[in-house]
Design brief:
Helix content is about 0%, strand content about 15%. The chain is an all-beta fold. It has one domain. Bound molecules: zinc ion (3 copies).
């Protein structure tokens, strides 16, 4: 199953929120459409806190959810390795759950 949601990264505007290339650049996550399709069931991305933005600082999309703010997960079990945070000790995505936080 999949569903369309308003693009988290650009808040549905379809424009690059950081104006990285130019103020009229299209959002790289939704290609300017303002909506993205996600697989369901989906859970809020723990790696970026659902913002769709890379928490490591760069003004780019989250590397775990690709800027969508949520990840496909059929499990409700927090990852035993990162305890559901999605992060390894070095701040990179957990190698076991790939940053999703569940498995
Ligand atoms: Zn967008
Ligand atoms: Zn994310
Ligand atoms: Zn993990």
């Amino acid at each position: 199953m999949s569903k369309k949601i308003s693009c988290t990264f650009c808040r549905g505007t379809g424009k690059d929120p950081f104006e990285l290339l130019s103020p009229i650049s299209d959002c790289l996550v939704c290609n300017g459409k303002g909506q993205v399709e996600i697989e369901t069931p989906a859970k809020k991305c723990v790696f970026c806190g659902g913002t769709g933005r890379n928490p490591l600082g760069a003004r780019v999309a989250c590397i775990v959810c690709n800027g969508k703010g949520s990840n496909f997960s059929i499990s409700d079990q927090p990852c035993v390795q990162c305890k559901g945070t999605g992060k390894a000790s070095d701040g990179l995505p957990c190698t076991r759950c790939k940053g999703v936080g569940f498995n």
